[in-house]
# Entry
Amino acid sequence: MPGAARATNSPARVLFASLIGTTIEFFDFYIYATAAVLVFPSLFFPSADPASATLQSLATFALAFFARPIGSALFGHYGDRIGRKATLVAALLTMGLSTVAIGLLPTYASIGVAAPALLALCRFGQGLGLGGEWGGAVLLATENAPPGKRAWYGMFPQLGAPIGFLCSTGIFLLLSEVLTDAQFIGWGWRIPFLASAALVFVGLWVRLRITETPDFQKTLDSDQRVRLPMWTVLSHYPGQLLAGTFMVLATFVLFYLMTVFSLSWGTAQLGYSREQFLLLQMVGVLFFAVCIPLSTLFADRHGRRLAMVIASVLIFVFGLFYARLFTAGAAWQVLLFLSLGLAAMGLTYGPCGTLLAELFPTEVRYTGASLAFNLAGIFGASLAPYIATWLAGHYGLAYVGYYLCVAAALTLLALAWMPRQRG
# Structure
C-alpha cells in the first residue's frame, strides 16, 4: 500500500540510506583515483618509462567513466521497472565486490600483462556500480522529500562525495604516517580496498531496511511503468538528456582537475610531498562539503537553475586564475587554490542532482537522470586528468584553466537552453 510505504520511511532513515550508500561508493571510487596516481603506475605497468606508466594508469581510471552509462542503462532499467530499493542494493554490491577484488590483485611483477588487464576489469565493475548508484540515491532522497525541500533532501547523497573523499584521503594519509614507503608500496595500499568490505555491509544493512519511494509506488499502483525505459528516454526525452549532460559538464571537469590532476601534478612537477598535498586537499574538501548545503538552501528558495548558473560563472572565473594560484613553493597559495576550486565545486554539486531528477517523469527518472549524469562523466571527467596533463606539459598550466573555462561556458549554454526543453 502506498500509505504504508510512506509511513515506514522516516526522513532520518531515508536520508541516512541515501548518504551512506554514496559515501561508500565515492570512497571506493576515490581510493582508486589516489592509488592510480601514487601506486598503480609502478605496480601494474612496465616501469621502464614512468611518465608512460602514469598515463596508462590514468587511462584505467578513465575506464570507469565509460562503464558508468552502461550501469545507468542496466540499473536504471530495473530501477524504473522493479523499484529503487532492490536496484540500489544490487549497485552497492557490484561496486563493493569490484573494489575488494582490486585489493587482492597480483601485480605486474607476478603475472605480467594480466595484472593491468584484471585491474581494468575491476575498474570497469566499479564504474558499472557507481553508474547505477548515484541516480537511485538521489531519487531515494528527492522522491521522499516534502514540498519545498526537494533540493535540501537531494543534498544528502551529494554529501557522500566529500565525505567519501575525506575518508579515502584520510586513510592514505594514515598509512603514509605509520608505514614506510616500502611497506606502503608492498602491501599497505591494499588496506583501503579490503576495508571497504566492512562499509559495504553497513550500507546493505541500512538499505535493506527501507521501503519503496512514494513516487515510484504511485507508478506501480497506476501501472505507468514503461517497457524499455532506456528507449523511452532516447526517443521521447532527447533534449532533456542532452541538456542534462552538458548541465553538469563543468562539475565533472572541475572536480577531477582539483583532485586527481592536481595531486599528480603537484607531487610530480611542483615538488610537494604526497603527505603534504593530501593534507592540503583534505582542507579544501571541507569547503566542498560546507558549500553543498549552502547551495541547496539557495536552490530551494530561488530555484535550482539560478543556483547552477551562479556556480558555473564562478567556475569560469576560477579557470582564468588557475595557473596563478597553482604554483610551486607556496603551500598557502595551493591551499587557497584548492579551497576556492572545491568551494565552487560544492556550489555546483549541491543542486545538480535535484535539477537532473526534475528533468524526467517518474517512470523513466532513474534511467534519465543517471544516464545524463554519467554521460557528463565521460565528457567531463574520464579524460580530464589525461587532457590536463597533456595541456600542462605542452602549453603550461594556464591552458588547463582555459580548458575549465570552456567546460563552464558549455554548462552555461545548457542551463540557458534547458527551460525550453522542460517546457
Observations:
- Residues 1-7 have pLDDT under 50 and may be disordered.
- The radius of gyration is 20 Å.
- The CA atoms of residues 357 and 418 lie 13 Å apart.
